[in-house]
Serine hydrolase family protein
Amino acid sequence: MMYDYVIIHGSYGHPFENWEPWLFNVLTSEGKQVLAPQFPCIDQNYENWKRVLDAYKPFIGEKTSFIGHSLGPAFIVDYLIDEKIKINNLYLAAPFYGFIGIENFDNVNQSFFKHSDISKAGEFFNKAICLYSDNDPYVPIEMSKEISKLLNAKQVIIPNKGHLNAGAGMIEFKELKKEIEKDG
């Protein structure tokens, strides 16, 4: 069995927060195979997250799309470049690649920013869509625009929804589901 979708949470996160459980339930109710792994929060670093996803690597292929939130997109980009896995599409929510200027997050996230040219990730997916808000309290909008540009991604700006998380009222993410539906 190959996964149709892989959902990657963000820093200090888990797959049972924000809109991720809602999306998981919607996609699985449509008969899709969805993976939403728990990545380590203690000792959070790229290598520890990679070990988790490596266990599922045989079930990820050209028809698998990745969905990532916050730090998740940086991990996905690094993983695609490192592992040279060809996948279907990328759906990136509140994406960034680099230091956001918040010391606690920058310290723990630093191992995820491995590549100087992340546009190389474009070799490994069909298309990318970046969804972000105009008032994210963590990720400067310029950083979401920059990763979108580097990945040649369609940009969807969702007004006044902060970090696209539960704290901003995002327990469902209908804008993301709409983009997924466009791709069949």
Notes: The first helix runs from residue 20 to 29. The two ends are 19 Å apart (CA to CA). The helical segments are 20-29, 46-54, 71-83, 103-109, 141-150, 174-182.
